[in-house]
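During the reporting period the student researcher (J.K.) took over the structure-prediction task from the postdoctoral fellow and processed the backlog of single-chain submissions. One of the processed entries is reproduced below for the supervisory committee.
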Amino acid sequence: MKKYLFTSESVTEGHPDKVSDRISDSILDALIAKDPNSRVALETSCTTDFVLLMGEVTSKAAEEIDYEKIAREAILDIGYDGSCEGFNGNTCTVEVRVGKQSPNIAQGVDSSVENKEDGKDRFDLIGAGDQGMVFGFACTETEELMPMPISLAHKLTRKLTELRKNKTLKYLRPDGKAQVTVVYEDGKPVGVDAVVVSTQHCDCVTTEQLRKDIKEYVIDAVIPKELITDNTKIFINPTGKFVIGGPHGDSGLTGRKIIVDTYGGYCPHGGGAFSGKDPTKVDRSAAYMARYACKNIVAAGLAQKCQIEVAYAIGVAHPVSIQVDTFGTGTISDEDISKIIYKVFDFRPLAIIENLHLREPIFTKTTNYGHFGKDYLPWEKCDKVEEIKKAIEEL
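J.K. obtained the following structure tokens:
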């Protein structure tokens, strides 16, 4: 039996990069709520008492949106309200540098190559907003069909935030991260080798007390007992104090936590980040569709692991390629699974947008603790299982 270790990390919503993601997605939601056809590519950068909003927005609601107000509300909701030195949503400077989408990009999205040539299929109406490739993945390691390392890491950071916001541990502050190393034997998770939790805190608590509390209230509450062994290593704030954090401790930027957002490094990541982008950007919407397809393939019992790569050309509706890999776990060939995916799932941008309801303001729900594995998101539904099973019979 082959034995190996795999590690994934997660960060809390107060991590500086996640502050930036949250602001970008909050503005995206505000625009889509007023104009579902908004084109948005918004980046946010933040540092000590300063936020910069930059990017391109083409929307009927562009003049109605108060970018600065939305940014401040997002920062305050995260918890940077004056309790942390160096970053305060009430008083920080917010600078807005937002223009319109380039007409060179818009012409490919407004009408796809297929629509210009034929124009018979309405799902060919718009093309991909950029070239690029995306990956989808699902596996049977957890109930939500996600890899175990990233699933456990997200649960740890969620617990940190829960304990901070419900004031069980009043000294906690918004910034933090967790890392979990899982032991695999013969491709299956059998235990946890290491857990690392680092959390920002006020100066009023000793390192000893913090470590005791985090072990009891976070790690023991999240990691299943059967996965902990005598050899499991636990590190809690290993450097000691973590008082200076958030954008005051380190600058943040939208799209810099792409591995946290997806599968924790368990499968490849495409060329683009997610937050701040409207659904015509296939590096976001097609990644959601790829997860949707993989999850339904695994839920239908066709594989224990399924990975899909989907690639696009700018301005073209149909993907240039779809590649399937079940890592030898498929009950039928990868070639046949690929045929089923082509039959059941439509990867053209407009089809993705309509099938996954991406013209709705749901994107701030994705910002933190991963874009996958949350059962309330439309691409997490296993509602294509019966259709997949029927497609098998028709092969």
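The committee noted the following: The CA atoms of residues 269 and 384 lie 24 Å apart.
J.K. will present the remaining backlog at the next meeting.
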